[in-house]
Each structure stands twice: as structure tokens, then as C-alpha cells.
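Hi support team,

I submitted a single chain yesterday and got back a structure, but I'm not sure I'm reading the C-alpha cell output correctly. Could someone confirm the output below corresponds to the sequence I sent? I've pasted both exactly as they appear in my results page.

Thanks,
R.
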Amino acid sequence: MNKTDLIQEIADRANQSRSDAQKFFEAFTQVVESALKKDDQVQITGFGKFYVQKREAREGINPQTKEKMNIAASKVPKFTAGNALKDAIK
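Hi R., thanks for writing in. Yes, this is the structure output for that exact sequence:
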């Protein structure tokens, strides 16, 4: 399922127009993005948790040249599924 399919499914299930569903979806993604930028987490009970994981700086190897290189510290978004979501797909 891609973004277009997801928005159409939300519109169908909520009995709303596709444009309204798209506005709701975009608002949801903006809220999650804004929270993650502030290093907050978004926890939806039963569904899951969006959070930021920090990666420490480390040394790696360039696979093409086999030379050692430094990899900078970074932050990456993560999602952990909640128990209800895990149970729903068993």
C-alpha cells in the first residue's frame, strides 16, 4: 500500500472526502515530525511508538576502497509496534 492508497482507505473508512483524509494524514505526519524534531516521542497506545534514536560516531570501512573512515554521529527516526498491532497481524 502506498501513500495514495492509504489516504483513499482512510477516506473510505472514515466516510470522508479524499481531500479531507489527505489533510488529516498530512496533519498527523506534521505532528509526528515536529515532535521528533524536539526529541519527543509519540506514543499511540496499542498501535506503537515513534521516537528518535541517537547513533554515536563510529569508524567504518568504505566498501569500495577498503579504507577506514569516520562516520559522524546522527539521529534516526524509529518506530516500535505496540502489542495490539503485533497481535493483530499474527
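A quick pointer for reading it: The two ends are 19 Å apart (CA to CA). Let us know if anything else looks off.

Best,
Support desk
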